[in-house]
Amino acid sequence: MGQLGSEGEDIIGPWSEEKLDLLAKYLKAYSAIMSNQKTSNNPTGKPWLRAYYYIDAFAGSVRPRTKADEERYIEGSPLRALQTEPRFDGYWFIDVSPQRIELVERLREEFPDCAIEIRQGNCNEVLCNDIIPRFPRASIQRAFVFLDPYGLQVDWETVRKLANIRTCDIFVNFSVMGVTRLLPREQSPEPEVVEQLSKVMGNTEWINQIYRTPTEHQLDLFGNQEPSPSRTTLRAEWLASLYTDQLRTLFPYVSKPVLMKNSTNSVLYALCLASHNQTAISITNDIFNRHERLKQIGR
């Protein structure tokens, strides 16, 4: 998500446009499959799925402006979801910013036939207190949750609770930049930083790994020295892989991450899907692979 403009709209970079395009492509595939499931009979002769929902934990502005051309507006994630066909049975939009919420509220008039719920507040509290209880494990409802934080606002405990009910897929944009900014180059991080990273990532054993002294080495299965990450050589790809590996402790299926980079080729975010359905991951990886191939061609 980009900076907030004077009128409440976000100003976003090209990487955010890529992310929104990938979201739209997956939503189209997801909704088509779920809509079909609402009419597919199980052994009892009744459809197993009653309804499916879109949940946006950081709804942002509806039509953000682009950083390269601030006269050009694009469609934000709420619009992309509302325009997806077949339609979701309901939509939840959450944001902590009153300005952004005011913009999202206007969507009720633009889409009068859609069931829209809007909540202002901390996404962790809204998800855990208002939304997760509506999708218990035995529910015949499903939800797609888009977690696109402005930084490190998504608690690991929230992700754990979403995984435990087994009725939600999460499309998460993990802030690699937010993590690297917290890690000092010359010394180990302070306890409060370690606590913050634990709250976001659910594990901090890796921190000791990157601050090891040069005399400490890992051995591979054949007894050879294995190169290990350090703070000075820390790569965004490694952090993205670390987070997706953590997600696999909660979800049985996690896609490959796509790295969102800025104009200087620095990695800002890692986008991935975590699901209880293997087909969802196959579809996501296919969308991501096609996206990366097209980027290579465009270079």
The helix content, as a percent range, equals 25-40%
First-last Cα distance:
24 Å
> What fraction of the residues are assigned to beta strands by DSSP?
15-25%
**Number of discrete domains:** 2
Under CATH, the topology of the largest domain is which? Answer: Rossmann fold
Structural class, judged by helices and strands? Answer: alpha/beta
- Average pLDDT reading: 87
Q: What low-confidence regions span 5 or more consecutive residues with pLDDT below 50? A: 1-6, 219-223
How do the SSEs run, as a string of H and E? EEHEEHEHHEHEHEHHHEEHEEEH
C-alpha geometry: globular
**Count of discrete alpha- or pi-helical segments spanning 4 or more residues:** 11
According to DSSP, the number of beta strands is: 13
Main beta sheet strand tally, sense and closure:
8 strands, mixed
Q: Output the radius of gyration.
A: 20 Å
**Mind telling me the CATH class of the largest domain?**
Alpha Beta
Q: In the CATH classification, which architecture of the largest domain applies?
A: 3-Layer(aba) Sandwich
Q: Quaternary state, please?
A: single chain
Layout of SSEs?
Elements (H helix, E strand, L loop, with lengths): L2 E2 L5 E3 L1 H24 L13 E6 L8 E2 L10 H6 L7 E6 L2 H8 L1 H4 L5 E5 L2 H9 L9 E7 L8 H10 L2 E8 H7 L8 H11 L3 H6 L7 E2 L5 E2 L9 H12 L5 E2 L3 E4 L5 E9 L2 H21 L1
Parallel strand pairs: 2-4, 3-5, 3-7, 5-6, 7-8
Antiparallel strand pairs: 1-2, 8-13, 9-10, 11-13, 12-13
Helix pairs in contact: 1-11
Description:
The protein has about 300 residues and is an alpha/beta fold. The chain has 2 domains: about 5-185 and about 235-299, Rossmann fold; about 190-235, no CATH class. Helices cover about 40% and strands about 20% of the residues. It has 11 helices and 13 strands. The chain has helices at about 15-35, 75-80, 100-105, 105-110, 125-130, 155-165, 175-180, 190-200, 205-210, 235-245, 280-299, and strands at about 5, 10, 50-55, 65, 90-95, 115-120, 140-145, 170-175, 220, 225, 255, 260, 265-275. The strands form 3 sheets. Strands 3, 5, 6, 7, 8, 11, 12 and 13 form an 8-stranded mixed beta sheet that branches. It has a 3-stranded mixed beta sheet with strand order 1-2-4. Strand 1 and strand 2 (about 10) form a beta hairpin. Helix 1 runs antiparallel to helix 11 (about 280-299). The chain is globular. Residues about 1-5 and about 220-225 have low confidence and may be disordered.
